[in-house]
Amino acid sequence: MFKNYIKTAYRSLKSNSTFTILNMVSLVTGLLVIYLAISYLRFENSFDQFHEKSDQLYRVGRTQRTQDYAVVGFGNWSDASGENQVNQVQVIKDVAGINNATHFIVSNDLEYLNYRDIELEQNGILKTNTPASFTEMFSWKIIAGSFKTFAEVGNSVLINESTARKLTTGTLATLVNQPIQLAGETNTIAAIIEDVPVNSHFDFQIAVHQETVPYWGSNVYIELSKNTDATAIAQRIDQNILKVNPSLATNDTYKGHFIQKITDIHLKSNILYELKTPGNSTYIYIIGAFGALIILITLFNYANFTIALKTKQSKTIGVRKVLGASSTYIAIQFTVEAMMLVLAALPILILSLIVVVPLFNDFMKVALVSNPLLDLETFGLIVLISMIIAALASIIPTLLLATKNVLSLFKEKLSERKFEHFSLRKYIIVSQIAILIGVTSVSYFMYQQITYINGKDLGFQKEGVLFTFSSPENLDVFQDQLRSIPEVNFVGNGSSFGIEPFNQLEYKLEGLETIYDDSNQFYLDYAAIQAYNLKTTLSPAVFENPENRPNRNLINRSAAERFAQIKGVPIDDLIGTQIITEPTYQTESGDYGIPFTIDGFYEDINVFSLRESIKPYFITVSDRVRMGGMSIISYDFNLTESTVKKIQNLYAGLENPFPLEIEYLDQKFETLHAQDTKTAQLIFILNGIAILLASIGITGVTLLLIVGRTKEIGIRKVLGASVAQILKLSVKEYVTFVLIGLAISAPVAWWVTNLWLNNFAYSTDIQPLVFVVAAVMVLILSSIIVSIVSYKSATANPVNSLKTE
């Protein structure tokens, strides 16, 4: 019996190759997108779950003013000794309910790594003075060597596999216990570990065991005892930490500590000094919604094609019933055909995934399993979804045809089956059109926002500005040589732009008691002002005479407007007004705060990403400004390659302890919006796939309609209807479908677009006309498809059309 089902199904699919191919293309494409969407959502929600104790691991953060920090500052900040640092993490470890604690800092500054005659430029260097806890709490997979050596031997290192393979072509174990030079310091390789998984909220290539963490604070992680109430731990940390850092008790800016579950950090945290750019849950929801829409379109298409296919076989079904086939037999036959199509699609799907997933990984910077057979959980879910789609698609023709009696199957004419008025078909096509209008509109607004980001005037020169990082000891010599390069316009010192937000200042205006905490302080010399091409009220004469230039304190336009409103004076009258920053901080002389006088203004600038609104920014302009070994260089943007090569040659002529690092301001700003751009591009691609699937679906619906109206078309031609009139008749009802689809999709698309744009402080407007244009485009696309499909019947010999049943 089952063999007969298979044979009949195979013959049916083969004899109706057009429907089968369209159905196959739709199914494979839909399942491909569904697999990627599910795998991506699972990946984004899998961060840090590879640690064996992930349910017990938490990060400790600190709140200062109104901002949360991922870094916990030491008692003596950067001057804290190694002993003081270890004491601080120890008092946290001593809190009841905490099993273990570790702390570290990760630097992405380039350093030289030397091993024998090999020299590498290395970043991603983690430094910790709690090495035993670091390897006990986190689940790093060891390849060779010993964590015990790392814990017990000072200046020992863990090296990841990728770095280790750059040092030797032999067995990795041969590197263990070998000396290496890192940033000029001799270290011993304690162990080789596998690369940190991509779904980790922090990454490193080398971990160094050293006495002191070289920073003003550290990233602190704790392991809670099982069944410990996490909500009470932060309060206990606050109490214990005063033992090693009693100054916090009198620090008005200190608001307490908090803890974050390590598995929640990627999608539920976005605080200052994150170790890696976190994910965005809103974007995850949007991508998930698009995946769900693709599932619906795939289901609609499958149902349409199945109905169309079985409609053509109504008389065959009648014959089978005459020969004794029951309605159950026919229903099972429909289901077997649907399942066969799914089984035929799966090998094609597997091959498609093997090709597409690596491209997706590279595009989205994720690590989905490229061979679906190695991720049986996800692939099994896809098979289940495809089976459900097949089953649901089989139900409709079963209800329409398998349950009908023999007489109606032979007697009913296709034109009389009211397919033209069949409500389910209308629901399906309207749903597809609504989805098409909605995803096209959302995709357009996302594209428009990214275009807006890339083209927005940030208030400073973005192109033709780069930053170099050299040795502070050689900075003046290096900068003098840089100024000799013809392509270089200005070489300055000071704060970099295109950065993530950092800690804000408290301040108050002279004569007022209200304290604000929303400002940022920047430092630039006069050359940096020119390099950034900031628009200021500084006199041009000041720039022309570099001798003995006085320090100047500037505030941005937003700050000036706010202060003028508060004081009730014109903006120009603010010149000479004193601002007191950190008014609760007591200096050694006993005074409170650090005052400065407003000397001028500058136009607003977007120092951070466009997700951040412009707030009061203060700039201290002084030729004595130095930011380590960083230089701000403006140059001829059209000669970037030759300029960079000359800079590199100059640097090579100096003795510097670390490699030259170059950052481009425009690229830094693009990096701030890399996640936004990637998500928008992905949605744009998904939109294209949705259009493809919907087009296939519209083709299927039209084929179904034409099958039911072939005889009607023949009669109309006999009565004198032209081809154009027949095509117009076929297209006419799609106008109504599009109008209904527009009414359904516009509010939903508006809401989704708002959800996207709410991620930005500065964004484009939602123009209602876009929804109308999208609807018109969908109508044009539908009309073209319908006309092409209908043309064959419209031009056919009416005699043959009249013979059709």
TrEMBL record:
<feature type="domain" description="ABC3 transporter permease C-terminal">
    <location>
        <begin position="685"/>
        <end position="798"/>
    </location>
</feature>
<feature type="transmembrane region" description="Helical">
    <location>
        <begin position="283"/>
        <end position="309"/>
    </location>
</feature>
<dbReference type="GO" id="GO:0005886">
    <property type="term" value="C:plasma membrane"/>
</dbReference>
<feature type="transmembrane region" description="Helical">
    <location>
        <begin position="21"/>
        <end position="41"/>
    </location>
</feature>
<comment type="similarity">
    <text>Belongs to the ABC-4 integral membrane protein family.</text>
</comment>
<feature type="transmembrane region" description="Helical">
    <location>
        <begin position="769"/>
        <end position="791"/>
    </location>
</feature>
<feature type="transmembrane region" description="Helical">
    <location>
        <begin position="330"/>
        <end position="359"/>
    </location>
</feature>
<feature type="domain" description="MacB-like periplasmic core">
    <location>
        <begin position="20"/>
        <end position="239"/>
    </location>
</feature>
<feature type="transmembrane region" description="Helical">
    <location>
        <begin position="424"/>
        <end position="447"/>
    </location>
</feature>
<keyword id="KW-1133">Transmembrane helix</keyword>
<feature type="transmembrane region" description="Helical">
    <location>
        <begin position="379"/>
        <end position="403"/>
    </location>
</feature>
<feature type="domain" description="ABC3 transporter permease C-terminal">
    <location>
        <begin position="289"/>
        <end position="405"/>
    </location>
</feature>
<dbReference type="Pfam" id="PF12704">
    <property type="entry name" value="MacB_PCD"/>
</dbReference>
<keyword id="KW-0812">Transmembrane</keyword>
<dbReference type="InterPro" id="IPR003838">
    <property type="entry name" value="ABC3_permease_C"/>
</dbReference>
<keyword id="KW-0472">Membrane</keyword>
<feature type="transmembrane region" description="Helical">
    <location>
        <begin position="734"/>
        <end position="757"/>
    </location>
</feature>
<dbReference type="InterPro" id="IPR050250">
    <property type="entry name" value="Macrolide_Exporter_MacB"/>
</dbReference>
<dbReference type="InterPro" id="IPR025857">
    <property type="entry name" value="MacB_PCD"/>
</dbReference>
<dbReference type="Pfam" id="PF02687">
    <property type="entry name" value="FtsX"/>
</dbReference>
<protein>
    <recommendedName>
        <fullName>ABC transporter permease</fullName>
    </recommendedName>
</protein>
<dbReference type="GO" id="GO:0022857">
    <property type="term" value="F:transmembrane transporter activity"/>
</dbReference>
<feature type="transmembrane region" description="Helical">
    <location>
        <begin position="682"/>
        <end position="707"/>
    </location>
</feature>
<keyword id="KW-1003">Cell membrane</keyword>
